[in-house]
Design goal:
Radius of gyration: 19 Å
Number of helices: 4
Helix content: 40-55%
Strand content: 25-35%
CATH class of the largest domain: Mainly Beta
Largest sheet: 4 strands, antiparallel
Distance between the termini: 22 Å
Structural class: alpha+beta
Number of strands: 7
Length: 142
């Protein structure tokens, strides 16, 4: 009898992040109204920025899982809230790109699937990209 496969792992957006984005979406127009000096362009820009933040937060709420791995492959977010399944044979490399700019460091997890490159930051994964890369390498069958 076949042994059940080990369960996969998932990495998701931290729950506080969409809440913070929604708070910003409410605060921007409120601040524009509070500081209203009769400039309708200022209010319009605040509303447009708030709509962008609200859409960004909606994506986090609709599709919080950005990356999942199991013995058969990797599932990545694709588009606004879609998913793309990448079998291990399609995954060419898993690397972490580290950069320093203006004294601040950043790291991006790169999942290279040949024709597509999927990038994930710390806020997408809720974890350090280097730790996630190591977990992906361990999950990949040899």
């Amino acid at each position: 009898m076949r042994q059940p496969e080990s369960p996969g792992r998932q990495w998701r957006v931290p729950p506080a992040l969409p809440a913070l984005k929604l708070a910003g979406a409410v605060a921007l127009p409120a601040l524009a109204l509070l500081l209203d000096v009769g400039d309708r362009v200022q209010l319009a820009l605040a509303v447009v920025a708030a709509a962008g933040l609200a859409g960004w937060a909606a994506r986090d709420l609709v599709a919080p899982v950005r990356l999942a791995v199991d013995p058969e492959g990797v599932t990545v977010i694709h588009g606004f809230a879609g998913r793309r399944r990448l079998p291990w044979a399609a995954v060419e490399r898993v690397t972490v790109d580290r950069r320093a700019r203006l004294g601040l460091g950043s790291a991006l997890l790169e999942v290279d699937a040949g024709e597509s490159l999927h990038l994930f930051g710390r806020h997408d994964l809720g974890a350090d990209p280097a730790d996630v890369a190591e977990a992906l390498r361990e999950a990949r069958p040899r």
